[in-house]
Amino acid sequence: MATNRTFTMLKPDAVEKGHIGAILEKISASGFRIVAMKLTQMTVADAETFYAIHKERPFFPDLVQYMTRGPIVAAILEKDNAVEDFRTLIGATNPEDAAEGTIRKLYAESISENAVHGSDSDENAAIEGAFHFSGREKF
Ligand code: IDP
Ligand code: MG
Fold it and tell me: Which of 5, 36, 44, 75 is disulfide-compatible with 133, CB 3.0–4.6 A?
């Protein structure tokens, strides 16, 4: 079932570099409404669960270390066609391949430290949003 919501994380590298404000400004200017948002830090168990689909990949240990090393901003965003439009706004996984003006082109360092997460399907958007937020935290 199609929904109009997606889930994002501003990853530890983006937070460390002080890019929270600039990235949120870009998200708002692109027409997304913030449904839920918080500064939080994932535990190793959280990251292993969140990224379980990648657990056989060679970069998995580094991914878990990266995603747990400092705070993130987790958010649920609402817009028509949210999942696809947000993936377009963030750009390709590897910032070298990301289109001009995308969040990853502007703020990401590398394929591993790429500043921002965006859900890849409506189903995963719902799972990922529920992983980070209770019903009372969604507006
Ligand atoms: P996505 O974030 O664009 O959906 P995925 O393939 O789902 O990309 O990978 C999840 C995260 O794992 C990426 O955002 C990145 O942080 C990391 N990652 C993906 N591929 C690689 C790689 O080849 N080397 C190192 N890290 C990677
Ligand atoms: Mg993905």
Answer: 36
Model-level pTM greater than 0.70? yes
- Give nearest CA residue, ligand 1 atom 26: 112
Cβ-defined contacts of 17-21 (< 8 Å, 24+): 17/107, 19/107, 19/115, 20/73
84 lines ligand 1 (CB under 6 A): no
pLDDT tens digit sequence for 7-33: 999 999 999 999 999 999 999 999 999
Ligand nearest to the CA of 124: 2
Atom of ligand 1 nearest to the CA of 90: 3
Q: Check if the beta carbon of residue 89 is closer than 8 Å to that of residue 102.
A: yes
- Of the ligands numbered here, which is closest to the C-alpha atom of 92? 1
